[in-house]
Amino acid sequence: MTDSATIQPSDHALALLEGAVDVHVHAGPDPYTERRMDARQLARAAQTRRMSGIVLKSHEYPTQPIAWALKDDFPALDIFGGIALDHGVGGLNPEALRIALKLGTKVVWMPTFDAVHWRSHRPGRYFSSQEPIQLLDDAGQLLPVIHDILDLIAEHNAVLASGHVSVEEGIPLVTSARERGIECVITHASFWWPIDAQRSIAELGGFLEQCAIVSYHSDADTAVPQVMEQVRAVGPGHTILATDLGQAANPDPPIGFALWIDRFLEEGFTAGEIQTMCRDNPGALLGL
User: Fold this and answer.
1) Distances (CA, A) of 64 to 15, 71, 81, 130, 134
2) Which of 20, 40, 144, 203 is buried most deeply by CB count within 10 Å?
3) Does the pTM exceed 0.90?
4) Which helix (H) or strand (E) holds 207?
5) Is residue 234 classed as helix, strand or coil in its secondary structure?
6) How far, in Å, CA of 125 to CA of 161, rounded?
7) Do 87 and 122 form a contact (C-beta atoms < 8 A)?
């Protein structure tokens, strides 16, 4: 494997990184995975590159307390906390969510590593021994607790992210969320959301997140062109570029973001389109 940390982005990409918002980025501490930098180092790197904001993601714990603790030290950077409704916080747990939202949590991910769909497609790539979490009942309807969760998200003007749920779960989830006026984003849409399903989300007023992490997967040669095809089909107006970076073997997330921008420049996307996907759309999602 090429040492991705030695690859540097172009000056053009670094210029476009200014003002960008990464809505999906990982940092330490992490109970299971080695991270490239801790949250403070990440915030410093993002502010140095003149990014506008980051959303700290953990699969295991709410990150808003970290975001709150860092905000005064990095006044030029909006730092947002999130919560993933995996078993680490009790799964589909309205009380854990209520507390997180009262602390200012901005992004709520549906189950990720503990989602039924993830467990069935990525066997062994999870940490909890508890049963996988599903959003639908036997009749294919959203569970009552999902409506409780969506009501809380709407009440606190937070953002719904799909996590690692299936298309069959995600479409009714986003439909119900949008009926409440909730801003929505499909987490790394290229993983298993076909173009028709992505267009359905766009028609509902949701965003499709396309993450730089695919550049560092073993199937990058096919995965990256697939992302480009999807973005062209759905349109930059409904797309958010993010990273999902923070892994020890991959670049510092801001540098990885700039390298991701370079891929889009190489594919012929304009500076204006890239700014829409990196700055304007995530800004609209988060209410900046």
Assistant:
1) 29, 10, 4, 25, 25
2) 20
3) yes
4) strand 207-211
5) helix
6) 20
7) no
